[in-house]
Design a protein that fits this description.
The radius of gyration is 16 Å and the shape is globular. With 165 residues, the protein is an all-alpha fold.
């Protein structure tokens, strides 16, 4: 991707994050994202298939960017804490449509699956999944755990994730 294309992609992601910090995911249209990005809808669709693929790109980019050399669980916690204003508008309790829960589950599952398929890593959780005889179940278990962390964090509206004894 060239510099101009990368700049446009970043522009779309930034506009989406700004809108998402203001209102729930299901209340944001591709037209609004396009207008906030100063692009046309057709340009939006050159970069992303739909809002779901935009959301997936945003999560993947920012999770990896937060702490790139850390294990997935550390990256996820850092992401949740740093992007609280956005995440509160992604939670199923804030949506008028219940399909967002499934979208978030799928995004987390795909994020973990891609890391597992990428080959050997220093991440102990991913390495354990890679050694497992049933990777699909392991990925689903980790995805469920991450979703549980996200839901608890958002429901309790805590500024930081804390360990309970």
């Amino acid at each position: 991707m060239g510099k101009a294309q990368e700049r446009t992609r970043r522009q779309i992601l930034s506009a989406f994050l700004e809108l998402l910090s203001e209102k729930p995911y299901d209340m944001i249209s591709v037209s609004e994202i396009s207008a906030a990005s100063f692009i046309t809808r057709s340009t939006f669709y050159r970069y992303f298939d739909d809002k779901k693929s935009l959301l997936m790109a945003e999560i993947e980019d920012t999770v990896q960017k937060q702490v790139p050399d850390q294990p997935l669980l550390v990256q996820f916690v850092e992401y949740v804490e740093a992007y609280w204003p956005v995440l509160r508008n992604l939670t199923p309790t804030r949506q008028s449509r219940s399909d967002l829960h499934e979208i978030l589950n799928q995004i987390l599952w795909e994020l973990i699956h891609r890391r597992v398929e990428a080959g050997p890593q220093d991440d102990p959780v991913i390495a354990t999944v890679q050694k497992s005889h049933n990777k699909t179940i392991m990925i689903s278990a980790i995805e469920g755990m991450l979703m549980g962390i996200l839901e608890r964090y958002v429901v309790e509206a805590q500024p930081k994730l804390t360990m309970r004894s």
